[in-house]
From TrEMBL:
HAMAP family: OGT
Location(s), subcellular: Cytoplasm
Organism of provenance: Fulvitalea axinellae
EC class: transferase
The keyword Metal-binding is assigned to this record: yes
Catalytic residues (positions): C127
Entry EC number(s): 2.1.1.63
Entry protein name: Methylated-DNA--protein-cysteine methyltransferase
Family indicated by similarity: Belongs to the MGMT family.
Purpose: Involved in the cellular defense against the biological effects of O6-methylguanine (O6-MeG) and O4-methylthymine (O4-MeT) in DNA. Repairs the methylated nucleobase in DNA by stoichiometrically transferring the methyl group to a cysteine residue in the enzyme. This is a suicide reaction: the enzyme is irreversibly inactivated.
Amino acid sequence: MTYYHYFPSPFGKIYLVGNDGGLSRLLVDNGTKPFEISDDWIRSEERFKEAVKQLREYFSGERKAFDLKLNPAGTDFQKTVWQALAEIPYGESHSYKDVAVKVGNPKASRAVGMANNKNPLPIIVPCHRVVGANGKLTGYAYGLEMKRRLLDLEKVTRLFGRLIKRYGYLEEWWPAESEFEIMVGAVLTQNTNWKNVEKALANFNGKLSPEFIEKTETDELSEIIRPSGFHNQKAVKLKALCEWFAKYEYDTERVRRQDGETLRTELLSVKGVGGETADSVLNYAFDKPYFVIDAYTRRIFGRMGVQVPEAYVDLRLMAQSMFPASASVYKAYHGLIVEHAKAHCKKTPDCVDCPVNDLCEFKFERNVQQRAKIESGSLFETA
Ligand code: SF4
């Protein structure tokens, strides 16, 4: 008797198929490969409960290995290759040649490629971790886009695992004494560094409140926040933000009770509030699960070799799909990005002693370039 079940995933609807011997197939309905549900198969949610749970944990970055009873159909050679694939560690990629060596037949790269392609349990048996000899992505049954996203998910999860080990879990990272101070800080930090924001905040001399900003003339407010730069524009933005806050009678609990999407839409309609400012306010001031994307996020993800979408919202949704939907997780992870960008991953990075320097593609490429320069002598040339 064959059973099946399906559930939605970030990659499309996933169908699980199996029998008493275990899970035999995982099919992804993402439009790249046609498949059919046989009339004989019986739908059973119960039988696949554990597999669905583990896959969901994997998609949210919480699980790195699967512990399921598997029963894939294949030749002995294919099964040996699939076993070797299952042993490639999370977040790493091996070449076909590596796998061929592992199965004891170094000349069988091509046969390994074919067995890889026939893997009936993708994701669980991680054939996406096999890449070309030069590190380039090669074919994937469900398309290269899905392969890239799976590898990115694992890279990002490993990145944060290392950053937590180095810097700790930084949930209380945003330096502010009240929700309103976070809101003001989110505007003042636009196009400047936090030291300047601190100077501007100190200029309020303990009088920072929405009522104070509301009654202070724009020119005077602009002088107070001068150290943050772009002070004339920021004064107007702070006034506009307070106007929005007034709709909630300056009551942070009332704001918190409103749903996140409504708040986000409202905030984005406030003059001078873009995606990063809105998400900083939502996440840090009102505990809504919105991941803050900033230039540091782009820099570090990009250097790690993650394919970073250009649009702010696409990168935010990509990041959010990789972690449990939790305001506190997003706060901590954004804090880690900022800490790491300041400690090591600066514009000119300080890669020595960086906690992820063995995973970083940028460092690897830089080393290759430097080696090439040294070999050609150009590193020591003088003008
Ligand atoms: S190795 Fe260098 S470039 Fe890569 S993340 Fe670390 S500091 Fe940044």
